[in-house]
Amino acid sequence: MAGSRLDELFRRTCKERPKLILSFRWKAIALSIVLAVLAGVYVAGELFNGPTMYGRAIQTPLFPSFDPAKAESIQLSDGHGKDIELRRNGSVWNVVLGQEELPASLAKVHAFLSSVANLERGKLANTNSALDGEFNLDAAHARRVRIKADAGKVVADIWVGKSGSSGFEDYLRKADDNHIYLTRSSMAFYFAETRSYWYDLALLPDDVTGSSIQSVDVSGDIPADASGHRFIHESYRLVRKGAAMAQRWTADGSPMMLNQGRVQTTCNHLASLQGVDFVLDGQTQKNNPLTITVTTDRGSQYVLHAVYDAGKEQYLVTRNHLPYVYLVNTAALIRIVLPLEELVSH
């Protein structure tokens, strides 16, 4: 009895199996068609409608008409009294400090203006001004960037809030707009820097290189150690003589053979000499004067007057008739004013 039932069930299954297989195949085909249609809709949307809403926002400039070349002044305020102002004067930029203007690094100014020009609207984070405080974009916490062009016209006014979780984004908004965006930017970086970050502290112009220096005159007390506690009085003149590739450094008025590599290295250091800050007060004890005169192959001459500042254990250095006084580390001077005997080839 049980055997006959099993035989009947087997015969029925075999009879209906083709129908089951056919039904499964149609369902699989239908599902494949649906997936293909959905993929096609997505691709068509990407092709004809452009990027997603977030993508479109990312690609939209925050200041589409901003032209860095027309900027005349930059003001950065951290909201707590630390304000930095830079002003353009012809082809150069200066850092404004009270009634004085100190030279600014063109490379850093141009990089900053380029950053502003490349700001793009990122992810929209908020439109309710009552919630500005949550992003540090209320009047009590926001940092501010204002850039002006001709006739004092404000061409960019940015409120910068807290940074995003990645550390590479800032919450910010335009001064006249309640829309807050999480934007890829480095605005927060500039507020973390001091005023001296903007200074151009090179003592010689950019066109002076180690290979363009033709002569170096050293006269005065040379620091013998980085602490500035010991000095050696020296007076010598190094001159590059000869034609083209045959030029060699000589000590003027001396038959001594110089170590060419060491002299050239000191010239390279001299061409790239940088201060660490500008000095505005100068009310400190100064002694051990030192004069370095640099002449280039174009006939330009630059005279550096350096005096040791016992109060800071650094040097105060001026160049020709410039009104600026640079603060230079003693270790930097040691690399460019060696005793003559250390430049002799042994």
Relevant terms:
2 domains, alpha+beta, eight-stranded antiparallel beta sheet, single chain, nine-stranded antiparallel beta sheet, 346 residues, 6 helices
Provide an overview of this structure.
The chain is an alpha+beta fold and 346 residues long. It has 2 domains: 131 residues, no CATH class; 130 residues, no CATH class. It is 26% helix and 32% strand. The protein is built from 6 helices and 17 strands. It has a 9-stranded antiparallel β-sheet with strand order 4-3-2-1-6-7-8-9-5. Strand 15 and strand 16 form a beta hairpin. The protein is elongated and about 80 Å long. The termini are far apart. About 6% of the residues have low confidence.
In short:
With 346 residues, this protein is of the alpha+beta class.
Judged by helices, strands and strand pairing, the structural class is: alpha+beta
Distance between the amino and carboxyl termini? 118 Å
Average the pLDDT over all residues and give the rounded result: 84
Helix/strand order, N-terminal first: HHEEEEHEEEEEHEEEHEEEEEH
Proportion of residues in extended strands: 25-35%
